[in-house]
């Protein structure tokens, strides 16, 4: 049998005008950028990641944000599925987003789901085979399944629940205030660096940090320097090269505003929870599973990488995702 030809479509879609947002604002001249790549005629899987993710899902590291999971023979097998990625509204990439110094309306994860639905209709798909969503992307997947149930056959949700954990909101609120005060001083990048460094301490587990950075501090000039500092601030430096402070504020807030009525979600769902996840605790995923109103399974994994397990635990996740996408919808 001849192999299907592979194509890539990169487009920016102008959304319906005016584009009314979930919290009552209007986004003028709203647009969303997307990339569709894979065998022509194959089922389409939308793949959505955290707030830093973008439409480039597959490909070499640095090109695609999830190359460990999406590719030939992997969890989302690009030999059999077309992959749809988007640039989030308000975020990184070519979709509508705040520019430096600009204000931007508050966004809901429902607004991202609305943008994804507009893309699906624009492409002419009868439905998505699945949405695979990790972290913020899992929140969007749940919103899409509630609002557009006929447009998706199944969802795979990694480390995302139906509402934000209050302790996680506490951490992110401090991060946002650091960024706001830095922007007010005219140095948003400095604030974003600190906020990202703080965020990294919530993404990972205490066990990993102890193993990697448990050595004694060293005296440097007039103070002691702890091994963990270099790691955290290096991650912050790297982040400010890729992301705007204003976009961070928008999507961090959107994460904490997230709420979906799980009892209205009937789409078959595979939920993947990480025991060591500080941001989305296992009990929150259990509660989500109990409230869903359709076929679902909750799969637990252990990982010292905590919330970042979706980026680090390919060996564990590939068979789970592959099986979830292969199962027949009931």
Structural summary, described in words:
By secondary structure, this protein is α/β, with parallel strands linked by helices. It folds into 2 domains: 6-164 and 258-326, Rossmann fold, CATH 3.40.50; 167-254, Rna Polymerase Sigma Factor, Chain: A (Orthogonal Bundle). 38% of the residues lie in helices and 19% in strands. The strands form 4 sheets. The chain has an 8-stranded mixed sheet, sandwiched between helices. A two-stranded antiparallel ribbon has the order 2-3. Strands 6-7 form a two-stranded parallel ribbon. α8 links the parallel β13 and β14. α3 (166-184) packs antiparallel against α4 (188-203) and α4 crosses α6 (227-240). It starts with 5 loop residues before the first strand and ends with a helix. The mean pLDDT is 94.
């Amino acid at each position: 049998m001849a192999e299907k030809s592979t194509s890539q479509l990169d487009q920016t879609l102008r959304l319906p005008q005016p584009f009314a947002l979930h919290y009552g604002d209007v986004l003028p001249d709203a647009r969303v950028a997307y990339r569709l790549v894979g065998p022509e005629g194959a089922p389409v899987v939308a793949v959505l990641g955290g707030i830093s993710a973008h439409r480039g899902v597959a490909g070499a590291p640095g090109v695609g944000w999830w190359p460990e999971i999406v590719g030939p023979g992997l969890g989302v097998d690009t030999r059999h599925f077309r992959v749809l990625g988007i640039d989030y509204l308000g975020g990184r990439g070519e979709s509508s987003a705040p520019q430096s110094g600009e204000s931007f309306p508050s966004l809901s994860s429902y607004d991202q789901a609305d943008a994804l639905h507009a893309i699906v209709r624009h492409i002419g798909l009868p439905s998505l085979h699945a949405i695979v969503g990790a972290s913020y992307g899992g929140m969007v997947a749940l919103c899409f399944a509630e609002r557009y149930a006929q447009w998706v056959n199944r969802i795979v949700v990694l480390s995302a629940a139906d509402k934000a954990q209050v302790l996680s909101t506490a951490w992110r609120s401090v991060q946002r205030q650091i960024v706001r005060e830095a922007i007010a001083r005219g140095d948003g990048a400095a604030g974003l660096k600190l906020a990202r460094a703080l965020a990294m301490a919530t993404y990972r587990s205490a066990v990993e940090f102890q193993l990697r950075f448990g050595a004694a501090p060293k005296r440097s000039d007039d103070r002691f320097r702890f091994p963990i500092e270099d790691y955290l601030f290096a991650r912050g430096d790297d982040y400010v090269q890729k992301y705007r402070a204003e976009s961070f504020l928008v999507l961090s807030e959107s994460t904490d505003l997230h709420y979906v009525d799980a009892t209205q979600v009937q789409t078959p769902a595979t939920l993947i929870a990480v025991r060591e996840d500080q941001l989305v605790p296992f009990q929150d995923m259990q509660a989500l599973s109990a409230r869903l109103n359709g076929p679902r399974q909750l799969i637990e994994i252990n990982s010292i990488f905590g919330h970042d397990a979706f980026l680090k635990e390919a060996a564990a996740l590939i068979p789970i995702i592959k099986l979830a996408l292969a199962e027949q919808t009931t």
